[in-house]
Amino acid sequence: MTPVKIGILGLGTVGCGTINVLARNGTEIARRAGRDIQVVAAAARDIQRERECDCSQIRLTTDPAEVVNDPEVEVVVELMGGTDLALSLVLAAIDAGKHVVTANKALIALHGNGIFERAQEKGVMVAFEAAVAGGIPIIKAIREGLAGNQIEWLAGIINGTGNFILSEMRDKGRDFEDVLAEAQALGYAEADPTFDVEGIDAAHKLAILASIAFGIPLQFDRVAVEGISDITREDVGFAAELGYRIKHLGIARRTPKGYELRVHPTLIPERRLIANVDGVMNAVLVHADAVGPTLYYGAGAGAEATASAVVADLVDVVRALTTDPENRVPHLAFQPDALSDKPVLDLAEVETSFYLRLRTQDRPGVLADITRILGEHGISIEAILQREPDPERGEATIIMLTHKVREGAMNEAIAAIEALDHLLTPITRIRMEGLAR
Ligand code: NDP
Ligand code: HSE
C-alpha cells in the first residue's frame, strides 16, 4: 500500500519530536496503522536553521499555506501554535477535505466548536490528543474508555511548566524566574510563558476536558482562572506543616445547578497520589459513577512525550481513512446534536474549603474580631495555626483552614476582615480540595 502523506506546520519542539518518533518507530507504527506514514512537506519561519530532526527528505517552506494546499498532503499536522493563522490554516485544510491533527489547545478551546462543526460537514477528522496533558492519552481515555460512565468530576495537574516551577521551588528552594527560564529552555513553556504561569494554558485544557467529560460545548470564557504567580514559599511551608501540598489544579465538576470550571492553586492532602505528581509530570483524576476514581499520569510536555500523542492521533486518522464519517468517534465525545445546555456556574456559587493567611497587628481581640466576622458569614474554622508573634514589629501571622463555604460568602467575609484596621496586608486565600469523592 502507498504511504499516507502528511504535511507538518511547525518544526519546533513538537514538530521535530513528531518527525523523530515517526522516523524511529516507523515500522512499528505502520504495523498498527496498516500503512506507512510519510512526512512529505513542512513549514517553519526559518527554513535555513539547523533543526533537532532530519528534514533532508522533506519539502520545506516558510509559507504554511503551501503545505496545506500541497496536493500530495492528505493529513495536515498543525504544530505551530497561536490562534489566528492556525485557525485559517486548519479551516483551509478542512475545506480541502484533509484530516487535521493538532496539539494546539488554545485553538481548540477558543475555536473548537466552529472547527468541529465544519469538520463534521466536510466528513474529516480533527484529532487533538496532544492538546491536553502532553503524552497522557487522556482524551481517548475519557472519550472512549469511560464512555459507559456519567463523569461526576475531574481534577488535574495539566500544565507541566507550572508544576515544574512549583516542585522546584518547594524541593530545592529555587527562584520562580530561574525555574521558568529552565522550563523554557527545555521546550515545556508556551511561546508566551504567561499562559503557563497565569493559568491560561490550563484553562484551555480544562475547557476541552470538561467538554468531552460532560458533553457540553467548549466554553473557555466561562473558566475561572488563577495562576501560580502569587504562590509564596511561606504558603508552601505552612501548607506542608498542615499536611497539604499546593498544586495548580484544573477542576471540572457536575452539580445539580450546572458545571464548575476552574483552574487555581489548590491545597490537597499530601497523602493523595496526585499531590505527589512533581516536575513536568501531569496527572488527571477522573471520578465517574460506574468505575469510580481513575488516575492518569505521565509527561505533560516535551518533544517526544507530546509527539507520542500526535502520532497516536495520526494512527487513528490513518485507520479511519476508509471508514464512513458518520460512524467515527465524535470530536467532543458526545453526538453534536446531543450536547447539554446546562450552564457553567459563576465562581461565587462554587463551594470549597479555604486556606487563609492573615498578617495582623499583635493586639488583644484581633482573633476574636476575625472569627466573629467568619461566623457571621456562616464560615466555620477547621484548623488555626498562629506563629509566635514578632514582638519587635508587633505583627502576627495567622493561618486558618475553613470548612466548605460558598465562594461569594468568603468574598464578603474577606472584604469585612480586610476593612478592620489591624489587618496589615490583604489576606492570602487558597482553595482546598479533599479529592476523596
Ligand atoms: P515551538 O515554538 O517550539 O515551535 C513552533 C514552530 O512553528 C516553529 O518551528 C516555528 O518556526 C513555526 N512557526 C510559527 N509561526 C509560523 C509561521 N507563521 N509560519 C511558519 N512557521 C511558523 O512550539 P512547540 O513545538 O512547543 O508548540 C507547538 C504547539 O504544540 C503549540 O500549540 C503548543 O501549545 C503545543 N504543545 C506544546 C507542547 C510542548 O511541550 N512544547 C506540549 C503540548 C502541546 P521557527 O522554528 O522557524 O521559528
Ligand atoms: N506549556 C505547556 C505545559 C505545554 O507546560 O504544560 C504542554 O501543553
Automatic annotation (TrEMBL):
Catalytic activity: L-homoserine + NAD(+) = L-aspartate 4-semialdehyde + NADH + H(+)
Keyword Methyltransferase applies: no
Binding site for L-homoserine: E190
The keyword Nucleotide-binding is assigned to this record: no
An annotated GO BP: methionine biosynthetic process
Active site: K205
Pathway participation: Amino-acid biosynthesis; L-threonine biosynthesis; L-threonine from L-aspartate: step 3/5; Amino-acid biosynthesis; L-methionine biosynthesis via de novo pathway; L-homoserine from L-aspartate: step 3/3
Binding, NADPH: K105
Domain of life: Bacteria
UniProt-annotated binding residues for NADP(+): L9, G10, L11, G12, T13, V14, G15, C16
Residue stretches making up the ACT domain: 355-432
Molecular function via GO: homoserine dehydrogenase activity; NADP binding
Key words of the record: Amino-acid biosynthesis, Methionine biosynthesis, NADP, Oxidoreductase, Threonine biosynthesis
Family: Belongs to the homoserine dehydrogenase family.
Descriptive protein name: Homoserine dehydrogenase
Organism listed in the record: Thioalkalivibrio versutus
